[in-house]
Amino acid sequence: MAAHLQALKDSKYHPLWLDSKLKPPTLPALEKDVKCELLIVGGGFTGLWAALQAKECKPDADIILIEANHVAYGASGRNGGMFDYLLAHSSNNSDYHFPGEKERIKELGIANSKEYIESLEKYDIDARFEQVGTLVIATDEGQKKSLREDYERLKAKGEQVTWYNQEEVRVQVNSETYIAGLLKNNGIDGIIDPACLCWGLKKTILSLGVKIYENTPMSDIASMGKNMLTICDDGTIESDKILMATNGFPNPMREIRNSIIPVWDYQLATEPLTQKQLDSIGWHKHKAGVVNNANMFHYYRMTKDNRITWGGGGSVQYYYGSRTDEGVADKPEIFEKLAKEFFETFPQLEGVKFSHRWSGIIASSTRFCMVPNVAYDGRVAWAVGYTGLGVAASRFGARVGIELLGYKPTDILDLLFVQKKTMNWPPEPLKYIGVELTRRAMISADKNGGKRNLWLRLLDALNLGFAA
Ligand SMILES: Cc1cc2nc3c(=O)[nH]c(=O)nc-3n(C[C@H](O)[C@H](O)[C@H](O)COP(=O)(O)OP(=O)(O)OC[C@H]3O[C@@H](n4cnc5c(N)ncnc54)[C@H](O)[C@@H]3O)c2cc1C
To answer: How much is the pLDDT for 453?
Structure first.
């Protein structure tokens, strides 16, 4: 059996982060009709941060949070934990969609991250946050050229960046596939344990008086006079306001459904590495999160207990009809490909086993960043669609969501970033054809030194081309 298949053989399908003794007990489901001021739907980062920030704005607010499964069940318990202060992918993209706001969006991203870190300290949340920066690596000349351009641009702006040539980058993380690297070490970005963050937020909001019902899926909502009614399996919730924090999952509101698509991303985690294995890579000395400078990029990081988690690349998939069911969650061929690519990067780790494999749903918008909005005369708001960049941005999305509902609104709400309606995804089959064409074109570009074909150039011209 090939080494990568052998390594995968005994892995269990379960997110590494959720396989922990620290996981708190699941709270009882809603089994009666209740009332509250603010209902939050979704127990991921957005919902949890929204509850916390709403309580900070108005300590006596009567808040209920419902979660279809358990807190951290969605993307927030399954991500790579790569913390990046940015609120939107690609500054060119922000420039196009929100002209004149690029710098303000950046400032808001930095302020959001600083407040994030302050909150972790204030509420004593151990999210295992390590502000170790991000190492972007190049594995071919095309990637190296564009990485060098990024380096020059960032350096000219006074950002904390370090350029590594081939020999130097391999001292940082030893892979014979690397030919250059760029360390972005701004003192903010780094890596977290996403489930520990969710559980810490859960404990905090419970202590502030938020009621949480788990295993409580919302099936529908309706307007009733001045209030909203939310229907769940065994009870209803009458509330003044609702914040939808359901991200890539199906939502009864068509406006939310049409603004995002669920894209599946797959991940592996190794068993903890031995000292000899760690020394063969050298990464444990700094632990910066790593991404490669490709369209379909891999992202990988080390954990507190010296495992490597490995995700992304060409395995990222959209399934026809916006599938979010478990039928596409555990795909052997995808995990085999990921495992093969892992050992191509780190052949010296041959013999290491993968302990966990899992997948999760990324909500992607056509503007490649969060989509906030409000409906029902200001009574229902949402923040969804972080397009794979939501570890830090979801706190900001939560803030925008509650501001839209009237909790201490600020001038953030005047920004195009908030006001501008996002372009909806087209109906099927156009949606599937468009996404699949783009995915294949990006994979080809990555094999071709970054050369973008006609389709990608057309999307770029229309500012619909994804750029990390
Ligand atoms: C595999 C993967 C890797 C990623 N890696 C990174 C990364 O390294 N860095 C980064 O910045 N971002 C990353 N992301 C993106 C990031 O995880 C998300 O943007 C972020 O977690 C979104 O948080 P959320 O709370 O909005 O959504 P979610 O965490 O998905 O939470 C939504 C919750 O709503 C619940 N829900 C849905 N429908 C209902 C309903 N009808 N009733 C009740 N509850 C409902 C769901 O069960 C779920 O728990 C990754 C995502 C994935 C999937």
So the answer is: 87
Q: In testing the pocket of ligand 1, which one of 40, 76, 86, 197 has its CB within 8 Å of the most ligand atoms?
A: 76
The whole-angstrom separation of Cα 262 and Cα 317 is 9
Ligand 1 pocket member 67 (CB < 6 A):
yes
Extract the tokens encoding 107. Answer: 């400032």
Is residue 245 lining ligand 1, measured as CB closer than 6 Å?
yes
Q: How many CA atoms lie within 13 A of 91 on its CB side?
A: 13
Q: How far apart are CA 44 and CA 82, in angstroms?
A: 16
Any ligand 1 atom below 6 A from CB of 73: yes
pTM of the model: 0.97
In three-state form (DSSP H/G/I as H, E/B as E, the rest C), the secondary structure along 425-458 is CCCCCHHHHHHHHHHHHHHHHHHCCCCCCHHHHH
Tens-digit pLDDT profile for residues 68-102: 999 999 999 999 999 999 999 877 778 888 999 99
Cis geometry, peptide bond prior to residue 429 (ω within 30 degrees of 0): yes
Tokens of 146: 């564009």
Residue owning the nearest CA to atom 48 of ligand 1: 74
pLDDT of residue 467: 63
Residue with tokens 């760690």, as numbered in its chain:
278
45 C-beta closer than 6 A to ligand 1: yes
64 CB near ligand 1 (under 6 Å): no
Q: 468 pLDDT exceeds 80?
A: no
